Amino acid sequence: MNPLALLVAGAFFMEFLDGTIIVTALPRMAAALGTDPVDLHIGITAYLLTVAVFILPGGWAADRYGARAVFTTVVAGQRGVLRLGLGQEQERANSAVLEAQRGHAVALIGSGDSGVYAMASPALEAAGDDIDVVGVPGITAALAASNLLGAPLGHDHASISLSDLHTPWPAIEARVRAVAEGDLVVTFYNPRSRGRDWQLAKAVAMLLERRPATTPVGIVTDASRSTETVVLTTLGELDVQQVTMLACVVVGSSQSRIVAGRFVTPRGYTWHT
Q1: Which residues contact 58 (CB under 8 A, 6 or more apart)?
Q2: What DSSP state is assigned to residue 161?
Q3: DSSP for 179-237?
Q4: In sequence order, which ranges of the chain are alpha helices (DSSP H)?
Q5: Closest CA to 239 of 197, 269, 271
Q6: Mean pLDDT for the chain?
Q7: For residue 148, what are the CA distances in angstroms to 9, 144, 178, 244, 259?
Q8: Disulfide check for 252: which of 73, 195, 216, 217 has CB 3.0–4.6 Å away?
Q9: Which residues on adjacent β-strands are paired with residue 160?
Q10: Domain 141-264 is in which class?
Q11: Residue ranges of domains in the chain
Q12: What is the distance between the alpha carbons of residues 147 and 114, in angstroms, rounded to a whole number?
């Protein structure tokens, strides 16, 4: 049987089942709401039919344009959607807190994990104890990149943003040197952009002072998206020109190696029996 037909049939069956359960409880529901059972039945039936009608076009749209695009479009059609671009994170956070203080339920949406170089920090800085906050864990860019490369984060590791828009370069440089001296695997976020085209090369030069040129390096761009690319290279052969703002650059430690085409950092434990 066609999987789509089976899915549609199942959806209609669930609608029928919902209707049957509701009709069984209809007299009590009507009494509790203080309305006529017939009027309530008409309203519920109209609702179920509306939902059923949208199953087919909704499934077609999700299949054609992607579930995320359909979800975003539906949400955007509702009241109170605010879209701001890169560089306006603080404005987004402040707007979300303000709407929550007005009594609205607010979803502050972003990619990756909201607590890692993302929106949780500016939002929680602005939110008082009068706002209930629920954080939903996500997959960070570093973790997505790691799984695509192999297991480069198998031992101690660090993440450093190379963007000096909010952090002075001397502080970033000190952190890169500390990672180099500590022999940690490092993931570089915001590695390079049109306006920041020298920081990654500088960071690579600092790492090369402490690590061999054969150290594995992985470049993952647009992880988990349709435009995803994965490149395995070495610290000595890394071409910074192919790195963009949308990439994560993972540099191995002295113990990292390539095994069967995969980037692996051994856990390094001594196992006891």
Answers
A1: 70
A2: E
A3: HHHHT-EEEEES---SS--SHHHHHHHHHHTTS-TT-EEEEEESTTSTT-EEEEEETTT
A4: 3-24, 26-33, 37-65, 67-76, 89-101, 120-126, 141-149, 169-182, 199-208
A5: 197
A6: 83
A7: 37, 6, 27, 18, 14
A8: 216
A9: 188
A10: alpha beta
A11: 3-76, 79-138, 141-264
A12: 19
Provide CB contacts within 8 A for 240, sequence distance 6+. 192, 200, 201, 204
Nearest by Cα to 204 from 191, 190, 222:
191
Backbone angles phi, psi at 88, to 5 degrees: -115, 30
Residue 272 has pLDDT above 60, yes or no: no
**Confidence (pTM):** 0.69
pLDDT band at 49 (very low <50, low <70, confident <90, very high): low
10 Å Cβ neighbour count for 102? 9
**What does the alpha-carbon distance between residue 263 and residue 273 come to, in Å, rounded to a whole number?**
28
What does the DSSP 8-state code read for residue 269? -
- pLDDT tens, position by position, 89-104: 888 888 889 888 988 8
